[in-house]
Amino acid sequence: MGGIGVTAAMTNEGMLVNEVTPGSPAQTAGIRSGDLLVAVDGQSILGLDQNQAAERIRGPEGSTVRITYQRQG
Hints:
By secondary structure, the protein is α+β, with helices and mostly antiparallel strands. The chain is 18% helix and 30% strand.
């Protein structure tokens, strides 16, 4: 299974990105530490636990996923 290249923790508001791996798909897409992931492929991840949200984000290497995120400010 692949991933987008972030370390994140689930909160009540979504998945808070703690770290973005250099050269990862997340970095290429402009996701930064402190961003809040709130939806995957148009479906909210609010109310999911850490594993459920991560499972929606992961996929086979080379697959595409659309992430909706919020940035403070």
